[in-house]
Design a protein that fits this description.
Layout lengths: L1 E6 L2 E5 L15 H4 L6 H5 L2 E5 L3 H13 L3 E5 L23 H10 L7 E5 L3 H6 L8 E4 L4 H10 L5 E7 L4 E7 L6 H4 L24 H19 L8 E5 L7 E3 L52 E3 L2
Parallel strand pairs: 3-4, 3-6, 4-5, 6-7
Antiparallel strand pairs: 1-2, 2-5, 7-8, 7-11, 8-9, 9-10
Helix pairs in contact: 3-4, 3-8
């Protein structure tokens, strides 16, 4: 691990690069380069923002450095708690310290393909307000509330965003891919926009909701696959995919169409971010209903838990 700088509380790290150590079948990246459509060059050139360094964010970050993403930018203002250690990429030595700092540091020891990591130790909304936002190509949003998901989706209408969540009962979760000019988070989950999407909404420590590593890891890896599909030729025939571990209802894999009446993206120009709409005080809405906007008619996800958490 190499620490480059630490200025204004933003810290930068770098994974070692072992690609010069061996060529051919012994190379550190040989097996993944054999996957059809895989492009190490595309990964090397990509900068990905990770918003939320909890269960989903730490799992996604770990996988991203293993694959060798070029630059990973991590945002989180929370600190590591003892209750995080059963499912997040932290250890007892990280307790009480900022999650963005510690995830960047820990992930820098897990990768061997030269990934650069930047840790921004504040919540994303605050980073935007303070001018600490780092330019990126793609965004992964793994926070635990719809308010921040909507804020991120609106802020990044001009570039791809992968949004992920797991259910309160830890039995299912989803990954949704928002691309410019196509369905956005509001199209996937219109009921989520009834919540307050003010800038400060959703900030603070993670609530004490049920969480376990199996569903969190599965959804994080599903999101990592979606990242590959956005920058290389790995196929993806969906923009919304929900996986139910318990099998109490079917998995969902579909293409949701853009809603022309969507208050988040309908008629909006990519790159211009209007202020969030005024909403009610209701928090965390229910199941991610696809409804009539989906190309597969009447598909929806019906289950016992509310899909909203970031793990």
């Amino acid at each position: 691990m190499t620490i480059f700088t630490a200025s204004n509380s933003i810290r930068r790290y770098c994974c070692v690069d072992l690609r010069r150590r061996a060529d051919g079948p012994d190379a550190v990246d040989d097996r993944q380069k054999r996957v059809p459509g895989f492009s190490q060059q595309a990964l090397d050139g990509a900068t990905v923002a990770v918003i939320g360094a909890g269960g989903l964010g730490s799992g996604f970050g770990w996988g991203a450095v293993k694959k060798g993403i070029g630059h990973l930018v991590i945002y989180d203002g929370d600190v590591v708690a003892l209750s995080n250690l059963n499912r997040q990429l932290y250890s007892p030595r990280d307790l009480g310290k900022n999650k963005a700092h510690r995830l960047a540091r820990n992930a820098s020891k897990a990768g061997y393909l030269g990934t650069r990591l930047t840790a921004v130790p504040c919540f994303f909304q605050a980073a935007v307000q303070r001018g600490l936002e780092v330019p990126c190509d793609i965004v992964f949003c793994g926070v635990d509330n719809d308010e921040t998901r909507a804020y991120v989706a609106r802020h990044y209408l001009d570039r791809p965003v992968v949004i992920a969540a797991v259910s309160d009962d830890a039995g299912h979760g989803y990954a949704a891919v928002q691309e410019p000019g196509q369905a956005c988070f509001g199209c996937f989950r219109p009921q989520a926009l009834s919540a307050d999407t003010a800038v400060a909404a959703g900030e603070g420590a993670c609530p004490a909701d049920p969480a376990v590593i199996d569903v969190v890891s599965l959804v994080a890896m599903l999101s990592l696959y979606a990242l590959d599909s956005l920058i290389m030729a790995r196929p993806r025939a969906w923009n919304f995919k929900q996986i139910a571990l318990h099998g109490l209802f079917p998995d969902v894999s579909t293409v949701v169409a853009r809603r022309p009446d969507c208050p988040l993206c309908g008629g909006a120009t990519p790159g211009i971010y209007p202020p969030p709409p005024q909403g009610t005080s209701a928090r965390k809405s229910g199941q991610p209903t696809l409804g009539a906007s989906a190309t597969t008619s009447n598909q929806r996800s019906d289950g016992p838990g509310t899909v909203r958490r970031g793990g």
